[in-house]
Design brief:
alpha/beta, 2 domains, six-stranded parallel beta sheet, five-stranded parallel beta sheet, 13 helices
Length: 415
């Protein structure tokens, strides 16, 4: 018999009581258990919840009275969001919940993102939202492994349309809680950023080489959300070291591309995690392919990856800006940083003779990186391309020296 799993069901029980009770009924009907959390401010649920709105507000360092007295719904919901996040994490750490599902419109979704972001990767977290998949949600607000389901036809009251979404979500979170294989952290974890093997393929060499050294390697697809997940885990101190070889999202954030947030390339440093960094695809800005070329990039070389994603090439002055921004971010690091700079190009299309090669632009970037490189960063220049064997050899040489000196944790640290 499968062990019963407890799912935290959270929402504004004063306005969404029927819908939240329906979610609970589905979970109970599938053999799960429910812990209810009320995050409303003004009204009360039809029956007491396991975690009251007063407990939520107090967990956020405030009170329902203060939320009401603010006279502002945005302020009030931020109080409840902070409290819901703190309370959910407390319940998880106490072993009282195995997953969470949050229901809401724009306000409930705003709170749901805070609640889910507080829980570690591997905890099933589902958001049923009237604005699921909407551009209203910036990437830095979206937790690394959250699942979202569109609450179609559910703005006010139950009906057969919204029941279909609610019942799927209830079954999904319970099934996930039963099936999840949470990260075990049996080996120290290396976080690496990259793209597909056609543009950057160092991971093909480095991953097995690092695994042979006793490390686990997680490679993040740095196209906005992948970088967000990478930064989220880096901020938690989840990595023994990072190999951030595709920090293109820094360029994206600067020039209006697919951003991973303003804190890209900073969280490993704040967490005192050693960083190996290379400027893979620094010269490109990603944009949504099906929307056409943004006006600032018209007339430039463009690479269309597929119907979803295209990239524009940066000009020399823009590349200098990227170099300065990377150096500024790395200067804040609280642990060793090594930048490996392949001076013959930083993506497959940027090789001499390649479709996107720009020798002048590459030289401008390299020159500015040399000039702006902060004192805490060791710069390793290589007369090779980022996809050449010499790049991987130098990375492993630096990594091995760090391991030998104890800079990189070779065993899992327990708290």
């Amino acid at each position: 018999m499968t062990e019963e799993k407890v799912i935290l069901v959270a929402g504004t029980y004063d306005t969404k009581d029927d819908e939240l009770q329906y979610l609970a009924e589905i979970i109970h009907g599938q053999g799960g258990r429910v812990m209810s959390m009320d995050v409303s401010v003004l009204g009360d649920p039809s029956r007491p919840t396991d975690v009251s709105k007063h407990q939520v507000a107090e967990a956020g360092g405030s009170s329902i009275e203060a939320a009401i007295a603010s006279g502002d719904e945005n302020t009030a919901m931020q109080i409840m969001g902070a409290g819901a996040a703190a309370k959910a994490l407390e319940l998880y750490r106490a072993g009282r919940i195995g997953g969470v599902i949050v229901l809401g419109g724009t306000m409930g979704t705003d709170l749901a993102l805070d609640l889910c972001a507080a829980l570690p990767v591997g905890v099933p977290k589902y958001v049923v939202s009237t604005v699921a998949f909407s551009p209203l949600m910036p990437p830095e607000r979206i937790p690394a492994d959250v699942q979202m389901i569109l609450w179609a036809g559910g703005l006010y009251g139950l009906n057969s349309i919204c029941k279909a979404a609610l019942s799927q979500a209830a079954g999904a979170v319970l099934g996930a809680a039963r099936a999840v294989e949470a990260p075990r952290r049996e080996r120290p974890l290396i976080g690496m950023t990259s793209f597909g093997k056609t543009v950057l393929h160092y991971m093909v060499t480095l991953k097995p080489a690092l695994e042979a050294r006793g490390f686990e390697v997680a490679v993040f697809h740095a196209t906005g959300m992948g970088g967000r997940a990478f930064e989220s885990l880096a901020g938690e101190g989840a990595f023994a070291a990072v190999m951030d070889f595709a920090p293109q999202e820094v360029s994206n954030h600067l020039f209006g591309g697919l951003s991973a947030g303003a804190d890209r390339l900073t969280n490993a440093g704040r967490a005192a995690t050693p960083q190996l960094v290379a400027p893979g695809c620094y010269d490109l800005v990603d944009f949504v392919g099906w929307q056409g070329v943004p006006e600032p990039f018209e007339g430039r070389p463009i690479h269309a990856h597929n119907r979803l994603l295209s990239s524009a090439v940066l000009e020399s002055d823009e590349r200098r800006t990227v170099a300065r921004e990377m150096c500024m971010k790395l200067a804040q690091a609280q642990a060793p940083v090594a930048v490996v700079l392949p001076t013959q190009g930083c993506n497959e299309w940027d090789r001499p003779g390649g479709d996107l090669h720009d020798a002048e632009g590459l030289a401008a970037f390299c020159g500015e990186l040399r000039r702006a490189c902060p004192d805490n960063v060791a710069l390793h220049e290589l007369d090779c391309h980022i996809n050449d064997a010499d790049f991987c050899a130098r990375v492993l040489e630096i990594f091995d020296s760090w391991t030998a000196k104890g800079v990189v944790r070779a065993t899992v640290q327990t708290k």
